[in-house]
Amino acid sequence: MLNHYYFPSIVSKKDRIKWMKHIVDTPSEVTFLKALEKHLKTKENFFTEFDWWMFSKVDHTLDKQIRIPYIDPANGKRDFLPDFVFWLQKGKDYHILYIDPKGTGRSEYQYKVDGYRDLFEDSDKVKTFKFSGKNFKVHLRLATEDKSVFADKDYYKKYWVEPDDFNIKLDE
Questions:
Q1: 78-111 exposure pattern, b = at least 16 Cβ within 10 A, e = fewer
Q2: pTM for the whole thing?
Q3: How far from the centroid of its chain's Cα atoms is residue 29's Cα?
Q4: In this structure, is residue 114 part of a structural domain?
Q5: Hey, which residues does 90 pair with through a beta bridge?
Q6: Strand ranges (DSSP E) for the chain?
Q7: CA quadruple 49, 138, 152, 83: dihedral positive or negative?
Q8: Measured between alpha carbons, how far is 116 from 24 in angstroms, rounded to an integer?
């Protein structure tokens, strides 16, 4: 993938290759990368609206600063480690988009979203941070195979996307 920040990006269909590190082999992450690759082949895609963009698979052993703190009532303060980060730029607007493929079965995602909201949203709107005449916003999306499990009025539904749905609204 040309816009991958780190080269090479290795995806494995099989279990982790023991002697190689930093391979994308988690099924939900592999599914997400395949969907991303397919989406990028379409002429008009989410990324064409930006002047430039890059992304990377966050390597939790190397990228130790990429963490969103949150409170888990059962375990106290914890860190959320999103799997992918996208840097997107349009004019003076810069967006950092975290996407984390996962299932909806575990409710701890709510605490992770709450931690994100505490830092990067104000009154349910994404905060704009201004620096050197530029605007910066940080976004979070969780990818799951079927977001229809959420009720339409579920507060957290807006944070979920399906792995092959890149119709992401950054101002929501």
A1: bebbbbbbbbbeeeeebbebbbbbbeeeeeebeb
A2: 0.83
A3: 11
A4: yes
A5: 93
A6: 52-57, 68-72, 76-80, 84-90, 93-101, 121-122, 125-126, 129-131, 134-143, 160-161
A7: positive
A8: 24
Radius of gyration of the chain (CA): 16
* Lookup result for tokens 């064409």: 48
**Residue 11 located in a structural domain:** no
Residue type, 12: S
**Cα–Cα distance for residue pair 127/135, rounded to 1 Å:** 10
Which residue range(s) make up the domain with 128? 27-161
Q: What is the pLDDT of residues 132-143, one digit of tens each?
A: 999 999 999 998
In a domain, 166, yes or no: no
- Residue type, position 172, single letter: E
Give the list of residues 6+ apart from residue 93 with CB closer than 8 angstroms, or none: 134, 135, 137
Within a domain: residue 4? no
Token pair in block for residue 7: 């080269």
Q: Which residue has the higher pLDDT, 166 or 8?
A: 166
Domain count of the fold of the chain: 1
Tens of pLDDT, residues 29-69: 888 888 888 988 988 899 999 999 998 888 777 777 888 99
